[in-house]
Design goal:
globular; Rossmann fold; alpha/beta; signal; AB_hydrolase_fold; Alpha/beta hydrolase
Length: about 450
């Protein structure tokens, strides 16, 4: 039997709690709690009547800090998924760090504080699952390696599971090719070591102008496609559009163009400020080899031929261009907060959209590779959803993934994580919407980084 805390005012030394009144229901809940940790992080706890002993601990995405306004913490998923989970006995907890931007360091710590608060007001859970989207998914993966004493399983969805060093190296490769071939004399387009948010805004605006001008002619389109291949920008990026055909080179390039700025020139200054310097480099990168390994060679060559450009000449120009070096201390910080090493202590189920760019779906492959090399492949399963976009999962998909992970924790065996079975489970409750899980194997991530 799961022990419950007595209802009423609870005094904690580790956190300041505000109890939200709920109908009297005896010792079996419901319990609704919000509060602020001493660090300034906020948290929320919901325990339903007839709690099944499982709590889902949610971490938010990039830039979703509580700040001095103490914004309330989210509980994860979407409203429909949350309602279903609570109605079926799952408790929910959420943490919103005080820090902004890439607040992985704080959230890893604050998640432990929230789970301690949960145990005080609701009792020790039988099963604790960490989940989160985007950066929050990276935190869930971090807890699976760093704090297996706190959680029993992790569900990172649409998550940056290759780590920030690999992610920003990937975007640097594309930005480097873009600047070298399309804006070689434009000092306003700055790749790394940005001094302020204002300087980054000017750089992004200058890059946007170059990109839009280049898209107006075949030569520019070909070079955009080449740069996009290094960042592995999806050729199916725009939500609500059909996937371009396998040989629809122009249609694929249009999708790459639409996602290029957000993928390649994503916020860098806040991450460099947090890390204490530049943590990206391209010294020693062979861009000719990267193009071959990207799976985009046929597309890029076709676009170059259409434009009458010499692809070999552009690759030679990239090979000859001065390279970017990293600051070791900044790399070390981003390795710590957080670059996966594959040292899983609990089962992990990742979920990615096939057409995601923030991160690219190839990050799932990078994560699987590092987990397998660490000897922990049996603890990992991966699922993929057949659509473009970032973190656009239906309630049916989220609930099916939660149920599959919880089953693995309770039984010790993975069952029902293939696409057919996940879709079947998702379809049990039509009110949750539809699910579009598909069998899929991502291509190899071009710039993996594993800490020594």
């Amino acid at each position: 039997m799961i022990k419950r805390a007595a209802r009423g005012v609870v005094a904690l030394s580790t956190a300041a709690l505000t109890l939200t009144p709920t109908p009297a229901a005896g010792e079996d809940g419901p319990i609704s709690v919000t509060g602020v940790h001493p660090s300034g992080a906020t948290y929320a706890i919901e325990v339903p009547r007839g709690w099944n002993g499982t709590v889902l601990s949610f971490s938010p995405g990039y830039g979703q800090g509580a700040g001095p306004q103490h914004l309330p913490a989210d509980l994860g998923g979407d409203a429909t998924a949350r309602s279903w989970l609570l109605a079926h006995g799952y408790a929910l907890a959420g943490t919103r760090p005080y820090g902004d931007g890439w607040a992985v360091e704080e959230t890893l710590r604050n998640s432990a504080d929230t789970l301690a608060a949960f145990a005080k007001v609701a009792g020790q859970p039988a099963v604790t699952l960490a989940w989160g989207g985007s950066m929050g998914g990276a935190i869930a993966a971090g807890l699976a390696e760093r704090r297996p004493d706190l959680i029993d399983g992790a569900l990172p969805y649409c998550a940056s599971v290759a780590g920030p060093v690999a992610m920003l190296n990937q975007s640097l490769d594309a930005a480097f090719a873009f600047k070298t071939l399309l804006a070689p004399g434009d000092d306003a387009v700055k790749l790394v070591r940005l001094g302020s948010a204002e300087e980054e805004a000017r750089s992004v605006a200058a890059a946007r102008a170059v990109l839009d001008a280049a898209q107006r002619d075949p030569a520019g389109q070909a070079r955009i496609a080449l740069a996009a291949s290094f960042a592995q920008v999806s050729t199916w990026s725009v939500p609500g559009t059909p996937e371009p055909g396998a040989r629809d080179w122009a249609g694929q390039q249009a999708q790459e163009y639409a996602a290029f700025m957000a993928t390649v020139f994503s916020p860098r200054y806040p991450l460099e400020r947090r890390a204490g310097g530049n943590f990206s480099w391209n010294a020693g990168v062979d861009y000719r080899r990267e193009l071959h390994e990207s799976g985009r060679l046929r597309q890029v060559r076709a676009l170059y031929d259409r434009a009458g450009l010499d692809l070999d000449a552009d690759l030679a120009a990239l090979a000859a261009a001065p390279r970017v070096s990293a600051d070791p201390g900044a790399v070390a910080y981003m390795e710590s907060y957080f670059t996966p090493r594959g040292a899983l202590g609990v089962p992990v189920l990742t979920v990615h959209e096939r057409g995601d760019n923030y991160p690219t779906v190839t990050q799932a492959r990078a994560y699987a590779d590092v987990v397998r090399r660490a000897g922990n492949g049996a603890l990992l399963r991966q699922a993929f959803v057949d659509r473009p976009g970032h973190c656009r999962y239906t309630a049916a998909e989220l609930v099916a993934a939660v149920r599959a992970l919880r089953s693995r924790v309770l039984t010790g065996h993975w069952t029902g994580t293939d696409a057919h079975r996940l879709n079947e489970v998702a379809a049990r409750d039509p009110a949750l919407g539809t699910a579009e899980f598909v069998p899929y194997t991502p291509g190899r991530f071009l710039r993996p980084h594993v800490p020594r």
